[in-house]
Amino acid sequence: MADLPPASVPPADEASALVSLRGVSKRYGDLLANDSIDLTLAPGEIHALLGENGAGKSTLVKILYGVIEPTAGEILWEGRPVTIASPVAARALGIGMVFQHFSLFEEMTVAENVAVALPERSFETVREELAEVSRGYGLALEPDRSVWTLSAGERQRIEIVRCLLQKPRLIVLDEPTSVLTPQESERLFETLTRLSAEGTAILYISHKLEEVRRLCRSATILRGGKVVATLDPRAKSAREIAAMMVGSEVGAVRAHLSKGLSDEVLRVESLSLPPEALHGKHLRDVALSVRAGEVVGIAGVAGNGQSELFAALSGERLSPNAGDVVIAGTGAGRLGIDARRRIGAAFVPEERLGHAAAPGHGLSDNTVLSHHATSGLVRAGFVAFSEAAKIARSVVGHFDVRTPSDDPAARKLSGGNLQKFVVGREILRGPKLLVVDQPTWGVDAGAARLIRQALVDLAAKGAAVLVISQDLDELFEIADRMAVISEGALSPLRPAAEWTREAIGLEMIGAHAEADAVLAREPA
């Protein structure tokens, strides 16, 4: 990745500030989510807001965007106190927000979703501006595609472009690159640097600390709702910053010792499935295997068939033949999700809120969703809620899930804590096979390490673990073997140590012969 020119604007003082937060606090009962926070941004400044999941970052930016009201403190816009009573008021001031969780209407098109946020412009004007901005910033979008047919990365592009079309003076970005490809991320960095040079202030939330060190000249670190440091992130290592975020050293994942070849738990043979959606990917002759005691990683750019592969493995889509997917010796291609769970499989989908967990239901209810088929939680048509609550509490305890109450609704948890819950919920079942899609998307360094270690430990106990991830660092850290998915086709599996990043990049764009040549010339 080429170095970007540094932002020309130094960290702000109040005299030069576009926006200042003074003593901002937010209390929910006994929980002090934000505790007297001061934060100042100048025009053109790219300022990072860092902290582990649950540190108070989302609460703070929701206050700034008018989603929630502060308990105490004040906000100054260009030196004068303002009350930001709603997102409409925030946008009127010139504040744009790109949330980590998408706020899109599934059944509407890309252009329709953008037009909803710009009611003062005609639909045709929005379509034209959408095409112009997406081309200019290298964030490709098809205006007439329905959102429900798009990958997570493509949906993130909509959120970013929709924000840019509002021409904000301050942009708040919450984990903007978590589902973008390296190439898309690079274009976004170039865009942000250009916007900064034009005077737009940017408040940047990310758990990718090397990204922060490269893009930002100032950073505020929150822990437990308080500011614990304000610094130039370039002056510290990523590990030092992570330690400030979590309050202790963040170690590397401990690898498990290989026990040699073991029984095959998952086998996929010549699996081909036409796309279910108009713009989905056709799975083409997919073949892979995962043995007991190993972690297999699937790398790839968003939208290349990952969701289709997950659906075929989990039973959300059935295969033409039972033998297309074999789990623990049973032909499972024609079995549904619950039947696959009963033969020892567990699944964690990419979208944690809405797919992996019902947003408005408590953690105990959400435990029933995946445990009812195997744990006897439903007997004679009745749900044993007390047992479900006991399992949920066990997940919370074992996986350090930080909750605002005893049995909160899933949507009340921060992204990282909900991810720890849905991964822990499946691991606690002791599955023979775990298939997990994007296990640490939008998760802080401490939570990511916990999840990755849990996956490695599960394999060490004899389970087969399949990880679909866009994070190459993650796959190189935990995978024993890896393959690349591109346009619905899967490359051959290779030991992770044999892959190079160059070869993976070539496989991602379908340049198979070139990738083979690189591996033959430059083994890892």
From TrEMBL:
Keywords: ATP-binding, Nucleotide-binding. It holds the Pfam family ABC_tran. Residues 19-249, 266-512 form the ABC transporter domain. GO terms for molecular function: ATP binding; ATP hydrolysis activity. Belongs to the ABC transporter superfamily. This is ABC transporter ATP-binding protein.
